[in-house]
Amino acid sequence: MIKIGITGNIGSGKSIVEDILIKKGFKTLCADRISHDAFENNEIIKKQIYEIFKTNDRHEIGNIIFKDKKKKRELEDILHPVIKKIIEAEFKNSNEDKIFVFVPLLFEAKYEDIFDKIILVSANEKLRLQRIIKRNNYEKEHALNRIKSQMSEDKKIDKCDFILKNEGSFQDLEKNLEKILGKI
Q: Containing domain of residue 30, as a range?
């Protein structure tokens, strides 16, 4: 099995790439969904999070962590080991030839060692800002806080095997993805 990590900063288009791969019949996992599931359904994690934030409301916690790096790190210290364990269990139990795992914070969480190949979905910051303001109805300042909370694309590029540009049309994205899939 080839284990492919797909990363990219907020607003880069990871969800669209995942939709394309699913339509092509590939197995995908999403670290954000794993995180949300753990956040909502794991009582131990809920308790740990509540002890730090005095709430379990994801929206309130989001507002805190994108302004407070220390609190963000505390949340990540709870969630990242759980997410990694679930991903590794999926690898162990899967019969797929290839499995694509979407991990926005792949390098920040230090997950690179569990993947055979890493793809970065890339888009310039101005475009990503426009996308997340439109998609999430965020104020510009909140959207920028989210962008700035992640490692820059420039630092990620050298760590990736493939760069998937997503600054053009859907057809361009699909075509570029096909080229990468042909090389894996």
A: 2-183
